[in-house]
Amino acid sequence: MKTAASPAFQDQGNSSVHSIPRSPRLLETLLANLDGVVYRSRDDERWTIEFVSEGCLELTGYLPEDLLLNQRLSFADLIHPDDREMVRAHVAQCVAARRRIDVEYRISRADGETRWVWARGVGIYGAGGKVEALEGFMQDVTERKEAAQALQEAERRYRSIFENAIEGVFQTTPDGTYIAVNPALARIYGYRSPEDLIVSLRDIRHQLYVEPERRNEFMRLMEERGQVSNFESRVYRRDGDIIWISENARAVCDEAGNLVCYEGTVEAITERKLYEAEMRHQATHDALTGLPNRNMLHDHLQRAINNARQKGGLTAVAFVDLDQFKFINDSLGHQVGDELLKTVAQRLQSCLRDSDMVARQGGDEFVLVLQNQTGGEAGIAEVMQRILAAVSRPWQAGDREFHITSSIGVSRYPTDGKDVETLLKSADSAMYRAKEQGRNNFQFFAPWMDSQVSNRLEMLISLRRALDQQEFKLFYQPKLSLKDGSIIGAEALIRWESPEQGMISPDRFIPFAEEAGLIVPIGEWVLRTACRQNKAWQDAGLPPVPVAVNLSPRQMNPALPDFVADVLAQSGLAAAWLELEITENVVMKDAEKTVAALHALKRLGLQISVDDFGTGYSSLSYLRRFPVDALKIDKSFVRDIARDADSAAIVKAVISLAHILNLRVIAEGVEDEEQHAFLKENGCDEVQGYYFGKPMTAADFTRRLGEEAGRLGEAR
Ligand SMILES: Nc1nc2c(ncn2[C@@H]2O[C@@H]3COP(=O)(O)O[C@H]4[C@@H](O)[C@H](n5cnc6c(=O)[nH]c(N)nc65)O[C@@H]4COP(=O)(O)O[C@H]3[C@H]2O)c(=O)[nH]1
């Protein structure tokens, strides 16, 4: 018996007050050994203690005597101030309702520590029904309370994670109904709440998965491995939208190993999927036209070859190149060029079946792969005709209308090549053949085309050699006055005498030389040669005429005026006997710089004419700003003068407007008397064409000038 903690008892000596009778020893021992305290208090403001058992010291740190009749402190003082009101209300309610007191609260121990206690008790009622005392038992439940609180906290935390997770969390039965889901899953699947999802989504296989087999696959993996990771599927949201999700889940089994449910997480990955698809698309498609690019073309063609090898059938590869693309790009700018490429891409697609492919190979080149051509060559030819017609339909850029044509080369598997590279090369060679044939046509590959200089690399090597080995020649074509038919000039036209292929026309190599940057040295050679030749004719006493030299857009650089001055000085030719022919697109391209360069050239004293007039897009009024002396009407208008009223009207309009602008007019490509008569009648100044003389060697032109001198002499 701990004397210091001996039970305190205050006999009230009042028979109306219930009191614990003086206990026998057994009861005392029992009370002393209780893990808690037995108490009796008055139901007054301070809950004055009348009896408290020995455990008081251990529970509160105070001796029973300290509390007895509030000697040191009252029972109310012992209760933690924050809980006092709650305890008071609870006790009052219980007493009033004659219920058992059952309450948990904190007390402040003598050593300052706060402990949780669980107090139970009853009101002791007197004869009048008035409560006389409260009796009960109180024990320390701090450990249980803290454990419960920790559990609650842990649960709260997990619930918070569950409720607030960005990922969806679920539990489902193996037969596909939801047991529990979190708000995120409801959000991902488009339901109002987790409850809404659980009641609405009853059949996961069919209501959720776009491909119901995914559920089978999910179950199979679960059976085999007991889990799935990064399981990606397309699913329906409540509103029918389709999204991508990725699931991580595991099978939950009971102790006996029986499957209870599946639980896991769901991540919405639509954006990532779209991004991945976009990346894949970018790697395999051309950004401008959206068509498959070179990489995809190669893969596709390889598959087409494999297919044709296994199953037979004719596969064709068509190389489509736009004829005037460079010109449009240079003169109208890249934006218009881009629009044109997009238009052509759409038109090509519209000519093909779904199983065919059109890819952009680069620049203005497109490649078509036509599989399983049951119609044979005739069928392919029909498709090519359709494509030529579709590409050449007029197209609109802003408020202007344009025309463009294409040249197509076709190779066939297996006749023209058995692998991707060879088929493409053969189609490319055939395309060059189509260009040579006058453009706006298609050609099937033939083995002899391989020996032609159709490969660009070979072309480049050959052109460089041609410059070094002096394989270029200048021909001269006479220009005549329409007034008296006299020779009033010569146009210098380049020829390439290739040791392997004989005479090659400039149409075949000039565009390539322009593209490859070789036009500058070639152009310099032309200018020197023409000036030297003209000076030689003059020195030989022949009638002096200006020689006209074609200038490519690439030559229009700031150094050109100095270079021309230098060439004139070296050759000794007076500037008045040199004429430079620039095409319309040179004029239009970078107008400010061109105006400056043209003025500098004009200051040297030479003549400038605008070539191929009418084929480009410059307006006559625009020409007012340029210091030019003459316009050359393109031969395409001259050719059609007699047949086509529009061409005749254009030629007439150009002549009269040029005269208003004080410019000379030269018609080129005059081939017959009818054209000659029309031009003369309508006031054209000069003519050039096969009717008066084809381009000829310098020696032939010397003779022609000699005859002219004789004729002039006779006339005098
Ligand atoms: N159908 C027909 N054609 C006729 C007639 N009369 C002349 N021609 C041809 O018309 C072209 C006129 O030259 P271009 O329009 O400047 O067109 C030239 C010019 O743009 C370019 N070119 C020629 N030589 C040079 C050069 O030295 N430098 C540059 N940059 N380009 C050149 O190559 C183009 C073609 O030259 P060529 O084949 O010599 O073709 C020449 C000439 O042979 C005719 O009555 N009927």
UniProtKB/TrEMBL annotation:
Domain of life: Bacteria
Chain ranges of the PAS domain: 23-98, 154-195
Domain PAC: 101-153, 229-281
GO MF: cyclic-guanylate-specific phosphodiesterase activity
Domain EAL as annotated: residue spans: 456-709
Comp. bias (Polar residues): 9-18
Chain ranges passing through the membrane: none
One GO term of the biological process aspect: cellular response to nitric oxide
Family annotation (PROSITE patterns): EAL (PS50883), GGDEF (PS50887), PAC (PS50113), PAS (PS50112)
Domain GGDEF: residue ranges: 313-447
Entries under NCBIfam families matching the protein: GGDEF (TIGR00254), sensory_box (TIGR00229)
The protein's name: EAL domain-containing protein
The species this protein was found in: Herbaspirillum robiniae
